[in-house]
Every structure is written in C-alpha cells, then in structure tokens.
Design a protein that fits this description.
Methyltransf_11, SAM-dependent_MTases_sf, Thiol_S-MT, eight-stranded mixed sheet, 27% strand, alpha/beta, S-adenosylmethionine-dependent methyltransferase activity
Length: 217
C-alpha cells in the first residue's frame, strides 16, 4: 500500500466499519449494480474499508483504490487480499494521485459527498480517464422539499463533523456535468421509506462518459 495520507477522521473511522458491515440490502444491491459492466483498469475513489472489493466482476483486470484515511486504508488493504480481482490500495486523495496510464473507468461510491472540493476532484478524475472512459457513481444527492431542508440543516450543524465531512445536500450530478462528463444513464433511489426523516436515504446511481481527448478545465 502506498501511503501519503492527509485525511484524519478518527471517529468516523471507528463507526464506518460497523455501518458498512450492516449495510442495508438495498444499498448493497445498488453497489453491485454500480460495478456491473466494468472491465480493464479501474480507479476507485474513496474506497473506505473496501466494501466494493468483493463485488468487482472478473472482467476487471486491475483496480487502483485510493483511500486517504489511514485507519480505513488499513482495512481496505486487508479486504484487497481477499478480492476476486487484483487491487492496489493507495493512501492518497484523488487530487494527490499521481499520473499513470489512463484508466478505463472510475468508480465513486458514497464519496463525492465528503471531498473538500468536489469540482476539483471530478476534473481530476476526468483527466485520469481515457477518452470514452466511464465514471460509475452511486452517491448521496440533494433532495427537494422538506427532505432537502433537513439535509441543509444537518450539513450546517453536526453531520459533516461526525461522518467524515459528508455533506448530504450536494448537487452531485450537476458537478459531474460541469466537470466535462456526459451523463449516459441516471436514476434516483430511496433506500428507506420516504416518510423516514433520514438525510442520506436518497441516492443517485448513474454512468457518465469522458467525451473529449483533452483534459477538463
């Protein structure tokens, strides 16, 4: 594992493994769908404890998984050893990640909510893809109406402090488009009943493509 960590979330690093181990089946199903169709070289951003690793299809030749929180990266390294495809865990942020040959796909799963500058991260991911390469994403998304009001309240108070800088009310797909990607498919899913006041119950599952040969600006 390459180490250059700059992220320190001790409380989140303690609770997230428990959350991930008891993840709802609805979210697990969406994770698996998010990885369907992948092949070649894949970059996974914000791998956490390696929850996705066991779900990668055999058509994937290699996964480079970046996770800058050192406690989570250590757990991801252990999960990588049991994965069905070769996985290298790198202890860096997406912005720090060094140049390599272009990737065929990038995977984001519940991570763009927590990065400090999502626009900069998405532009960086765009530059790391080959022309025509895909971004597979499963992300928290800004909800409308009262649910959105709850999201804005928790984002402004306790939620980011407790949950690794997670911001629940982000216009993630808009940021993806503004980074230069062309969204190919997209749908929203509620993972809990609509009447339950939980700010991360709505997720967006989609795929976007790098359409040009130049780097995003």
């Amino acid at each position: 594992m390459t180490t250059a960590c700059t992220v320190d979330h001790p409380f989140f690093a303690r609770i997230w493994p428990l959350v991930a181990a008891h993840e709802a089946q609805a979210i697990r199903k969406l994770r698996r769908e998010n990885l369907t169709g992948l092949s070649g070289r894949v970059l996974e951003v914000g791998a956490g404890t390696g929850t996705n690793f066991a779900l990668y299809p055999p058509t994937v030749q290699e996964v480079v998984a970046v996770e800058p929180e050192p406690r989570l990266a250590a757990r991801a390294q252990a999960a990588a050893a049991e994965a069905p495809v070769p996985i290298e865990v790198v202890g860096q942020t997406a912005e720090q990640f060094g140049d390599r040959e272009p990737f065929d796909a990038v995977v984001c799963s519940l991570v763009l909510c927590s990065v400090g500058e999502p626009d900069a991260v998405l532009r960086r991911l765009y530059s790391l893809l080959r022309p025509g390469g895909q971004l597979h994403y499963l992300e928290h998304v800004a909800s409308p109406g009262a649910a959105g009001g709850l999201q804005r309240f928790v984002d402004a108070t306790f939620w980011p402090r407790l949950f690794g800088n997670c911001h629940t009310h982000r216009e993630t797909e808009q940021a993806i488009v503004e980074a230069g990607f062309s969204v190919q498919t997209s749908r929203r899913e509620l993972t809990m009943p609509g009447w339950l006041p939980w700010p991360v119950s709505e997720l967006v599952l989609g795929r976007a493509r790098r359409v040009s040969s130049g780097a995003a600006t």
